[in-house]
Each structure stands twice: as C-alpha cells, then as structure tokens.
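Researcher: Let's continue the batch. This sequence belongs to DNA mismatch repair protein S5 domain-containing protein, and it's 343 residues. Same format as the previous ones, please.
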Amino acid sequence: MEIEPAEEVKEPPRIHRLDESVVNRIAAGEVIQRPVSAVKELVENSLDASSTSISVLVKDGGLKLIQVSDDGHGIRYEDLPILCERHTTSKLSKYEDLQSIKSMGFRGEALASMTYVGHVTVTTITRGQLHGYRVSYRDGVMENEPKACAAVKGTQIVIENLFYNMVARRKTLQNSADDYTKIVDLLSRFAIHHIDVSFSCRKHGAARADVHSVATPSRLNAIRSVYGLSVAQNLIKIEASDNDPSSSVFEMDGFISNSNYVAKKTTMVLFINDRLVECTALKRALEVVYVATLPKASNLSFICQFTLPPEHVDVNVHPTKREVSLLIRKLLLRRYSLWLNRC
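Model: Same format as before. Here are the structure tokens for DNA mismatch repair protein S5 domain-containing protein:
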C-alpha cells in the first residue's frame, strides 16, 4: 500500500516595509493620474498665488511637455530646497485648518508627485528681487543649487517626460489628442469661473491658442469668449440663497441652458467655494427635473457656483481633489430641486 506524501505546509508570506521610492511613486500615480491632473494642480497653485494671467503650453498631450506660467507672487528663494518635498505647504499648519481652508491646494503632494513621475524645472521671481532663480527637481529633491537667471514676474513650472518611469501608464496615454482635449476643457472651465484672470492654452509649435480669455467683469462675456455666441445666447441666469441662520446657509448663482439649446451630452461646470469639482448626485437631480422639459435626444448645459460655509465642505476626500463631501448635501439637493421645479 502506497503512502501519500504529506501535504506541504506553506508558510505565510513575510510582511516587509516598502522602499520609500516605491511608496512615493505609488502615491504619485494616484495624485497625477494623467497629464490633465498635473495641469489642474499647477493652475490651482497659480490661482493660489493671486495670479492675474496664466498660460499653459502642451506638447504631445502633456507627456513630453507641460509648461504653466503665471504672474503671481512667486516662490521665496529660501523655500526652494523643500518646494517639492512631500507634505510641504504654505496653506495650512495643523489639521484643524482644513475646516476653514480656502486655498485650492493644501496637501503638499502635487509638486512632489510630479517629480516622481517626470522631470520638473521651476523658474521663479518674487517682488523686489533683481533676478529670478531656476532649479530642477527629481524624486522630491533639488538636483542642483538654484541658479540665478532672468525671469518675469511670477513662476514658470515645466514638466518634461511625464510618466517616463511608468511604462504601463504611459502606454495607455499614447492618444495625445484626447489628453490635450481634456486640458483645453479644463482651462475653459477655469476661464468662465475666474473671470478676473486671463487664461491661455496652446499646443507647442502652434501659432494660435485654443483657449484665450481675458479678464472681464461679466461671466456671460467669459462664457461667450470661451464657448461661443450660440451657447451664451441660450443660457438662463439662475440664483438662489438660503440666509436663514437657523438652517444651512448657502448661495448659488450661475447659468442653465434653455429648451432651445441642443447638445450631444450634458455639460456641468460646478464650483463649490471656488473649487472645481464633480457631483454626480447634482447632475442626476438636474437631469430628472429637466427630462420632461427638454426636447427628445437633447441635453442641458449647467454652469454654477455654490458658496457654502467652509466647515460644511470636506475637501480631503479624493486624491486629485476632484470631489468634495458636503455635510449638508441632502438638504442642498432637495432645496435646489424644489427651486428648479418653481422655475
């Protein structure tokens, strides 16, 4: 009689600490998911720097080159050594600051993430300096000491060879035309909200910008400049507020398309406390209310800004800050839907 060999007992795998470089690259892949993610982070930094003019230059959909230039307050020379380290920021100093945060950035991860998946060069000058400084970064640290150089007011950040060390990610982003379209759409959204800032976006080597807006006192003028006259002519001004101190305080203003507007898909441009975000629940609520009004196979366009108490908005819920969590979301959606039904 043959004796069956005893089943081999497998030892549980050992748990070990990941190398810091691996951890940083994984984190970078979550924050900078594609070129448009990098552009969004850089433009938001420019807005935080009180810029009045922001220009973006892109090559091969952002994989070869992303250049964002602004005329903001610049970066201090003494801050350059830690500029691209993870969790270095000028926006907050303690966790409680998140309850009243008004800046677009706050985590100190965006620039660091870019240095882990691309080659980053920063040129900056602050008010009163006779010259600017240029420095390159790799994996969160300076590659060399800052070099004095000629510079115009503000900061210019250049990212080259994005995802050069993430082969799979780079292969999935080979369609540069698609990514450039996403970047143009992003800049268009910023341009129709931040109407006191001039925006431009163009491809490398192109003589004409695909986005070119100038500061204007009217949001409707900005929409006309970015999306064209036909869109602007078919928009209805909307606004609502709840100033009852015993309940959740909010203000809303913007535009929504009328029944004459024809589009292939619903477009929603939503800012909450000046932060560009997405909100699927609000989009669905709008579509439900308008489905009986819109012509068959037609969609709506919605451009809106909500102003809420900062303590009612949790901005720290998504790696790319694409979404926020509203502590009063259900009440807000219910009241807004009721308002739409009255229109």
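Researcher: Any comment?
Model: The mean pLDDT is 84.
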